[in-house]
Each structure stands twice: as structure tokens, then as C-alpha cells.
Amino acid sequence: MLYFVPTPIGNLNDISFHSLEILQKCKLFLCEDTRVCKSLINLLNNRFNVAIKPLKILAFHTHNEKTFLNSIDKDFFEEDVVYMSDAGMPGISDPGQILIEYAIKNNIKYEVLSGSNAALLALVSSGLCLKEFIFMGFLANKGAQRKKDIEKLMLNPYPSIVYEAPTRIINLIEEISNIDSLREVFIIKEATKKFESKFKANACKVLENLKNMDLRGEWCVVIAPKIDQFHQNILCEEDILELDLPLKVKSKLLSKINAKSPKENYQKLLLS
């Protein structure tokens, strides 16, 4: 059996009884960082007077996950195995998704335990979500792709959740403010920890506050949607197909909204 165990994102008391039970039961651990895993195990054993004693702790992260899975047989998972990322829910902006896919493909029994998640915590704290939302994780670090990511989140029809590093948080809010200085933004850092900080205002005001804050720590940002603009400017495939344009131009426009390549769209237009 393969268990995906979420770990506390700050406050050690957020670990569940179920997680402690599974961690004590398993002797083989896969983890994002073996040093972080060993440190967390020691903290849990001391805080909750439990006996988590893995016989083997192996690294499984974004740089070795494919190589690791190619090197083992599915019989590897006949014993109880735990997977833990450094903090939070495995597979959400953390390694783990490929391991889930591997388990499904090879009919390996697995269970994902419930637990801490920074994105949902920030979303609820923001008061910006009535029903739907969009999680974008970490944006590109720099360059044209980062600019494209920010422009995209500003057009999203629902609140957008973004993770950001302390070195880029001011740049992110500056870019948002340049596009729409009055857009409502919620920021939170070091969620559940002793020095948790959170603030909600328009982008211009948030930027002003950030410049006077200690930026160290992990940041989560929730950006309000601009619903009116979205409804006025939305295009669908049918709208593009009705335009009197060359097929190559249509195929490029279609690729912007249906995630298919221009070539694939062009071939489909030729057959229609």
C-alpha cells in the first residue's frame, strides 16, 4: 500500500492522528528531501510521544522521480510505503503527481490522506471565493513566460491563487498594479506559523505595505477576478470559426484557447 501523507505547512499541531498512525506503521519512506523528512520525524516523535522509526528513507523529487520509477519494479510497493513532500499536500506544487500516475497505471493500491494546504487556507482567509477558483501554483521565474502568466491570471474569471517566493513577491504585485491598480489582492506569508502575516486591499495599497514589510517567508497570493471585463471580451471557438480569415490565421487563434497546436487546428479546418 502506498500512502501520500500531507505534512504541516508551519504549525506542527496540524498533523492529523491518521497521519501519525500511518507514519508509525510504515517502514519505507519516500520524501522530497531526506534531511527535512528526518528532522520532521524527530519533531513529531518528541512533540506527540510517538514512535516513527522508518528502516529506510529514500529521496523522491522532481529531479529523480522518473529515473527512480524506471529503476524499480511495482513489487516495491507490496510493503507499506509513505510518500511525504517537505510541507503541505503532495502533488500540489510539490512532487507526487507522477507517483500517483504510476500507482494508477500499475494497479497499486494507494491512499491520499487529508491535511494542510496553503492554497485553500489562503483562499478561505481572503474572503474572495464564493464558489469557483483557479489555482496557478508558482508562476514562471522571469522573462516573457512570467509576463504571460501574470497577464493570464489578470484575465481569469475566478479568484486566482498563486504561490510566490520572497525575492519575487514585490515584482508580482507591481506587475498586477501596473495592469489594474484597483484590483483586490490578498497576501499571506508564513501561514499557521508564529509570525504569520496577512493583508487585503487593492494592488496599489498592497504594494505600498509590502515595501515596509519583512519579506522573508513563503507567500501565497489571491487575486480577485475582473468579472465584467471577462464577460465582455470572452471568445469561444465558434466565434473564431465564423470570422472571415485565412485558415492559417484561424488555426493560430484557435490554438490560443483550445491548447491544440496551430498545425492540428489547421488540419481540422481543412477537413471541415
UniProtKB/TrEMBL annotation:
Keywords, comma-separated and alphabetical: Cytoplasm, Methyltransferase, rRNA processing, S-adenosyl-L-methionine, Transferase
Entry's Gene Ontology BP terms: methylation
Entries under Pfam families matching the protein: TP_methylase
Keyword set includes Thylakoid: no
EC numbers for this chain: 2.1.1.198
GO molecular function, one term: methyltransferase activity
Residue intervals of the Tetrapyrrole methylase domain: 1-201
Matches recorded under InterPro entries: 4pyrrol_Mease, 4pyrrol_Methylase_sf, 4pyrrole_Mease_sub1, 4pyrrole_Mease_sub2, rRNA_ssu_MeTfrase_I, SAM_MeTrfase_RsmI_CS
Gene3D superfamilies listed in its UniProt record: Cobalt-precorrin-4 Transmethylase, Domain 1 (3.40.1010.10), Methyltransferase, Cobalt-precorrin-4 Transmethylase, Domain 2 (3.30.950.10)
Highest taxon of source: Bacteria
Cross-referenced PANTHER family: RIBOSOMAL RNA SMALL SUBUNIT METHYLTRANSFERASE I
NCBIfam families named among the record's database cross-references: 16S rRNA (cytidine(1402)-2'-O)-methyltransferase
Protein name in UniProt: 16S rRNA (Cytidine(1402)-2'-O)-methyltransferase
Organism, scientific name: Campylobacter insulaenigrae
